[in-house]
Write the structure tokens for this entry.
Amino acid sequence: MQAFICITCGTQYPSAEKPPSNCPICEDERQYVPQSGQGWTTQDKLAVTYVNGWHQYEAGILGVATQPRFAIGQRAVLMRTAHGNVLWDSISMLDDATVSLIKGLGGLQAMAISHPHFYTSMNEWADAFDVDVHVHADDQKHIVRKGPRIKLWEGETLKLTEDVTLIRGGGHFSGSSMLHWAGGASDRGIVCSSDTAYVAADRRQVSFMRSYPNFLPLPAERVQAIANALAPFAFEKMFGNFFESVIESGAKEAFNHSVERYLAAIH
């Protein structure tokens, strides 16, 4: 039996003799089923034509994504903190080279996922590095492959390590979360926002949506709640969900301006 992976969103399902009949993650209004219908692959098939590519943003911060682009192009972030390596988000493909590289860097101390579009193969990643994966409890109904390594957290924040904090922003999903690393960007702080606050193409602002592919905006109160959640945290850089999705400097000011711009636009 094999654990089939949805080609459209990258979600891995429980091991079975044949692929699932449908993908609830894609059928949700925040995602989509392509006109060609649902398609499936496996880790072994991915390894034939895909590789995981890496990008070092700065000392201690690396991004990893499958190339050529797979599913929605998810990119995970590996942070080498003073208290151990932290992996933010997950991607579908986990090959031997990726395992060797991360173990060579000291393995993982902690792992957390922003929202269901990044659940992907999180169980395999957690097993490979003998680490728990933290997922907000508000989104547990979207977990299609259970596992003993999945740890549900509740509330508005969770201290993942000494200087890494998970922050529930909500909005995109009820449990949509962000990560703050106080020691990142030479102690000026970084935020990994994933789809909770989407880094725009100009890399100078962010936006907010319930569904990005289906163009469903968020109401004002949801956006304000995201802003309130981030308000106590200082940060210089912001990392979105693709290799290029980075606000290199002045990220908190850019975020605050983006909130004002968004709220003005929808009123």
In short: The first helix runs from residue 24 to 27. The chain is about 20% helix and 30% strand. The chain has one domain: 2-266.
